[in-house]
């Protein structure tokens, strides 16, 4: 039996909901095809990034340089019809360089007044390139924007455009001169997406497509308004009791003080909070719709466990000394779900 959980707009007629979900699935298939003409061999990365946007969240893209992270964000902005901007994070970047600042202006009549000049955060899709290279003070400037979709300057709140998403990139190597993201900010990212090397076939196709006379260009396939409607639909997708139980078992089992696994209690310093369960609820719904299904399954929970959990938990010193990695711990938790 399927029950509706956490519905945003009340109950909906099943036939109408099914028709809307099928229409969205078809549209998302066209979106993936449009992205695939430009991005090669990163199907899982594209899928997880789209899941993040459909869930109304932000994503942290982690990978070595040259894997197309910047290209992916630029392509998403065009395909989804979003106003996209990019900020290159550096150690000398200031908060005002992101959120904006007030300037004193004098009119022709001699009257002086402050005017707010919005920063690049006032967009629908913000790429925070190499976010860990900026100082903690600058990193924290994004916290309010990511959580509340507004920024405050000189005591005045300025709302951000809707929709608003942050896709941040992080280089896992060359850590000298970087500032690790604080746990509070990491928790604001719905998914941490690992960007790996493409396989040989994809790399061959990329070489042929990108070194010729003309590169393939992304084409608009959705609009910002359609993305907002899709996000509202995702929140109306029914979630079964088995999926809800799997999410709770997975998230609560990753907490050292409440886990039923001795290895988890022994190896973890801290675990995920309720925001991880919320992220899983939304992400499993989005994944189901992308696959053409009306309701998520436990398989969706297992598939999204690592990108949801790995940036929301940490190993203790003894576990790191023994060579344990978070993937091993998450694997044990997934094995409990079958």
TrEMBL record:
Location of the ATPase AAA-3 domain: 58-191
Annotated ranges, domain ChlI/MoxR AAA lid: 263-323
Example of a GO MF term: ATP hydrolysis activity
Coiled coil: none
Keyword list, A-Z: ATP-binding, Nucleotide-binding
Stored InterPro entries: ATPase_AAA-3, CbbQ/NirQ/NorQ/GpvN, ChlI/MoxR_AAA_lid, P-loop_NTPase
Family of the protein in this entry: Belongs to the MoxR family.
Protein name in UniProt: MoxR family ATPase
Taxonomic source organism: Siccirubricoccus deserti
